[in-house]
Amino acid sequence: MCRWLAYSGTSVVLSDLLYKPEHSLIDQSLRSRMGVETTNGDGFGVGWYGPGGETPAIIRDTGPAWNNRNLRELASHVSSPLFFAHVRASTGTAVQQTNCHPFRHGRWLWMHNGEIADFHRLRRSLALELDPALFSALEGSTDSEVMFYLALTFGLDQDVPGAVARMAGFIERVGHDEGVEHPLQMTVAVSDGVRLWSFRYSSLHESRSLFHSSKAETVRALHPDLDFLRGVSDTTRLVVSEPLGGLPGVWKEVPESSYGVVQPGTDEFLPFVPEPF
Prior knowledge:
Blueprint: E1 2-13, H1 14-18, H2 25-31, E2 44-48, E3 57-61, H3 69-75, E4 79-88, E5 103-105, E6 108-116, H4 119-127, H5 132-135, H6 143-153, H7 160-177, E7 184-191, E8 196-202, E9 211-213, H8 216-222, E10 237-240, E11 251-253, E12 258-262, E13 268-271
Antiparallel strand pairs: 1-4, 1-10, 2-3, 2-4, 5-6, 6-7, 7-8, 8-12, 9-10, 9-11, 12-13
């Protein structure tokens, strides 16, 4: 599958989180401890929101993240208050730039770990449900991108949890109609540049790993030696496929079949149930 990281909070230099922590996302691309695959070398991507920019920037490439000089160079010079980073292990679709995460549409960023089971059988039925105005924006061949455009079709702009629930419910219905017992496996991150939503769900109720960080004030108390945390706000959060190492006491597992939103004010963690379609 894949490994990913989402950050929201005080603006940081991307390299501080991509490279510096023990067992960073770059290390996970080569030596994942909790993923289905140990190596996630089928491409990578980073998306971030700049100051005052409604449309996020993205860079994606098909090679492994661990030895990409351009990624290291860029990450040490770009700061952002909200960014996504993803390292890919293909589940069967081509290793090509348009299949690398995160995916972008307008102000939205989306990335995914997991799969639609037997996607090759379900793909046509799923794609026919897409809003015709969105279909031409579909660039790659992954189940992850189809999930994103289904969520957009089902009202992501108006209601993120509802749209993702309708997307999940539709995939399960199509899958069951085709005899697929457990159609969906997903951890998903999605953002509009202001809020960050994360979802953990699978039809089998044995979802891929997902963790969120404790409050920044708690992390500072536990690890006062971390320089980059000294100036961050208490609303700063990380959501990760697997914990960054060297930070005991920081990580909390996202509950099975749940979603969370990091936003101005109070964070929320609520049950996630696919909506019948």
